[in-house]
Design a protein that fits this description.
66% of the residues lie in helices and 2% in strands. The protein has a three-stranded antiparallel beta sheet, with no helix packed on it. A two-stranded antiparallel sheet has the order 3-4. The chain is elongated, with a radius of gyration of 35 Å. The chain is mostly helical. The protein is built from 23 helices and five strands. The protein has two domains: 211 residues, no CATH class; 181 residues, Serine Threonine Protein Phosphatase 5, Tetratricopeptide repeat (Alpha Horseshoe), CATH 1.25.40.10.
Length: 480
């Protein structure tokens, strides 16, 4: 399996083909619209063999968790999470002192917050790095995950008593073993939703082993996060006004709970390939991972299919790629600029002049619209080499004449403006082209008599044109 894109070695591979073994970035795969109707993302297919691809992007796209630690601490500051945390902490403080009711509130809110922390871990592990929505279904109606977690800890405690009664000194080794592998136990519980599998050391120990040294690093950070609420209270909160201390103490406990569960979920996501945990492309949402290809796909649905051409070129199948691009070019009402660019270059290599000129006429406006003026100039010159009578549209010809004028090639620009006027005399740019001719003759070539002759001729021929007043003013003040 490749870790980088076949066509862009500097880009991480997000999709892999089980048929040919190649990996591709999101821009290079062929996207088919299957699924749009159901509100799902389109399917990705191999540009080489047209087989559906398997997504591996979560593992390759995401930075290691130690490179984004700041994002774990920012995570609970999402608006809905922060408001929820503040509301629950305030309820804990305000109602916690009432006999009986206060105990019920504290226990109830802890269950609710632990349930939401579990949901944070679960959604993060599934590839959604945004906080999960708040709903009664998640927080109250389905407490099964929390109950399973408590039952898991209960069974571990029972196991400690059994070990202590059977072999007293070994209980310390048992406790140390369990403490080290608690995050792995939670990961197995999340990924399998099975208590039996979560308690099986033949499952959770290999899981931690496959994650490798990163597991120990995660464990170290979890120890720090577990100690953080107490340290914060002892060093900062006790110095604040008394009415704030209970609230901030509770809020700190829940804040670091959310951060810890988000961290565990992220590690499970980051190492999902090693662990054997499936992550669906449909569910992947990461605020710190840019998917420019998504917007490219929506803006230019045609070009996404042309990635197939890259594979054909890579394999030297030039006749096939020419046929493929030719069919795409002829089928499009307005062929995409990138399609025209690739097709134009291949046609030049092949020496097909007639089709090259046809594609060049479509390519020039696209290049000029993108601001690729020098590239447009080169394409124009290449078309002229194939056919000296090559004539693009009037707007493109006008802009190419401008490019030559700006480059100091005034005689060349003069000829192009004249050519525009002769071939497109009724076009809106015709009068402006003649005006530019007069300006070049007067200012650049120092031929005021010829300039006056040209400009007076255009006034006589186009008496109603909006540029007439400007041309007359120029004649009066600038031409000797």
């Amino acid at each position: 399996m490749h870790d980088t894109c076949l066509f862009h070695p500097s880009a991480p591979g997000e999709w892999t083909c089980q048929h040919c073994g190649a990996s591709f970035c999101e821009q290079c795969v062929i996207w088919k619209d299957t699924g749009w109707e159901r509100g799902k993302k389109p399917k990705a297919f191999c540009p080489s063999c047209n087989q559906q691809l398997q997504w591996i992007g979560a593992a390759n796209l995401l930075p290691p968790f130690w490179e984004r630690l700041h994002r774990f601490f920012v995570y609970p500051f999402h608006r809905r999470v922060l408001l929820f945390l503040v509301a629950i902490s305030a309820a804990n403080v305000l109602l916690g002192h009432i006999p009986v009711l206060g105990l019920m509130v504290r226990v109830g809110t802890y269950f609710v917050m632990l349930r939401y922390a579990y949901e944070i871990l679960k959604t993060t592990a599934e590839g959604d790095l945004y906080p999960p929505p708040l709903s009664t279904e998640v927080l109250v109606h389905d407490l099964t995950p929390v109950l399973k977690q408590f039952f898991l800890f209960f069974l571990l405690v029972v196991g400690a008593f059994l070990v202590a009664s059977a072999a007293g000194p070994l209980v310390f080794a048992y406790i140390l073993f369990i403490l080290i592998f608690i995050p792995a136990l939670l990961m197995v519980l999340i990924s399998t939703n099975s208590l039996i599998r979560a308690l099986n050391p033949m499952i959770f120990v290999p899981l931690a082993w496959r994650i490798g040294p990163a597991y120990l690093l995660m464990y170290f950070f979890l120890l720090l996060l577990g100690a953080a609420p107490g340290i914060l209270v002892q060093t900062v909160v006790i110095h604040l006004p008394g009415f704030l201390q209970p609230f901030l103490s509770v809020a700190a406990e829940y804040y670091y709970m959310f951060v810890s569960f988000h961290l565990i979920g992220y590690v499970l996501l980051q190492y999902h390939l090693e662990i054997g945990y499936d992550v669906s492309y449909e569910d992947f949402r990461a605020p710190d991972v840019a998917h420019e290809a998504v917007s490219d796909r929506e803006a230019s649905p045609i070009w996404s299919e042309e990635r197939h051409a890259d594979s054909l070129i890579q394999n030297g199948r030039y006749d096939e790629v020419l046929d493929f691009l030719g069919r795409r070019f002829r089928a499009a009402t307005q062929p995409a600029t990138e399609l025209c660019r690739k097709y134009f270059k291949l046609l030049q290599m092949k020496g097909t002049d007639k089709e090259t000129l046809r594609v060049g006429r479509h390519l020039l406006p696209g290049l000029l619209e993108r601001g690729e003026r020098q590239e447009a100039r080169r394409v124009f010159e290449q078309c002229l080499e194939s056919d000296s009578s090559f004539l693009p549209d009037a707007d493109s010809l006008f802009q190419i004449a401008e490019i030559h004028d700006e480059a100091g090639e005034h005689k060349r620009a003069l000829k192009l403006y004249q050519r525009l006027y002769q071939n497109h005399p009724r076009h809106g740019r015709a009068v402006e082209a003649i005006f530019r001719m007069g300006y070049i003759l007067n200012e650049r070539l120092l031929a005021p008599d010829k300039a006056r002759q040209v400009l007076e001729k255009v006034i006589a021929r186009y008496p109603e044109d909006p540029l007439r007043n400007r041309i007359e003013n120029y004649l009066r003040h600038s031409v000797p």
